[in-house]
């Protein structure tokens, strides 16, 4: 399982590869699956968490670090 710092690092790297701004502060939440669910835990990461615009959002598998979802709001 990857930790919060690793998940943020993955998100930052992907954002820079895409040419997206990755602005502080960054908010990371670990979402754990419900009982008996076949899904794994995932990290939900948002940059520029307290303001509008220049926001990158990622969902990362907490088991292996795979990016499941990504998106960017420039303004």
Features:
4-stranded antiparallel sheet
Please give a structural write-up.
This protein has one domain. Strands 1-2-3-4 form a 4-stranded antiparallel sheet, with helices on one face. The model has no long low-confidence stretch (mean pLDDT 93). The chain is built from 1 helix and 4 strands. A hairpin with an 8-residue loop joins strand 2 (42-46) and strand 3 (55-61). It is elongated and about 40 Å long. With 75 residues, it is of the alpha+beta class.
Outline of the structure:
With 75 residues, the protein is of the alpha+beta class. It has one domain.
What value does the average pLDDT take?
93
- What is the makeup of the main sheet? 4 strands, antiparallel
Strands ordered across the widest β-sheet: 1-2-3-4
- Tally of structural domains: 1
Radius of gyration: 12 Å
Number of helices: 1
Helical residue percent?
Answer: 10-25%
pLDDT < 50 stretches = none
How many E strands? 4
Strand content: 25-35%
Write the layout of secondary structure elements.
Layout (H helix, E strand, L loop, with lengths): L3 H15 L8 E5 L10 E5 L8 E7 L5 E7 L2
Antiparallel strand pairs: 1-2, 2-3, 3-4
């Amino acid at each position: 399982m990857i930790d919060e710092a690793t998940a943020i690092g993955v998100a930052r790297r992907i954002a820079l590869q895409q040419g997206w701004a990755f602005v502080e502060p960054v908010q990371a939440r670990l979402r754990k699956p419900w009982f008996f669910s076949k899904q794994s835990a995932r990290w939900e990461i948002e940059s520029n968490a307290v303001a509008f615009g220049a926001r990158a959002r990622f969902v990362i598998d907490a088991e292996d670090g795979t990016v499941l979802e990504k998106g960017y709001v420039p303004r």
